[in-house]
Design a protein that fits this description.
79 residues, alpha+beta, Mth169, Chain: A, three-stranded antiparallel beta sheet, 32% strand, elongated
Chain lengths: 79, 79
């Protein structure tokens, strides 16, 4: 089974990488771009067959390693 | 209008970040995780009202800045 984990910064958390992208876009002439936020997507190949087990295990991976839950949200999507 | 740009490494391109995540997951006991790939999601606030114009402009941003098209694919999603 394949899992996709979407990790995004929580609302209100400053995103310097997004700010840098916005600035660079402005320098290229795209100066009407508003807020830019940059997140991560982590794709995992899992050996689990059962969706429930897989989802629980991926959530555990997020809590322990993939996301910093103080400042980031995550969403697990199974394929 | 809001756009989401998904940037992923092309097939066959080595992903050291993904490999590091796989290794770290293994060290935490998740040792049956197969390949791991790490991508980016860039969320942009656009002032364009027209979907066609917005899509064309975001594709241009990808070609010029957001993606390295030699090693990365991108996908634009408008909301």
């Amino acid at each position: 089974m394949r899992a996709k984990v979407h990790v995004t910064l929580k609302k209100g958390v400053l995103d310097p990488q997004g700010e840098a992208v916005r600035h660079a876009l402005g320098a290229l002439g795209f100066d009407d771009v508003g807020e830019v936020r940059v997140g991560k997507v982590i794709e995992l190949d899992l050996s689990d067959e059962d969706r429930g087990t897989a989802e629980a295990r991926v959530s555990e991976m997020c809590e322990k390693l993939l996301a910093n839950t103080v400042i980031e949200n995550y969403r697990v999507e199974l394929e």
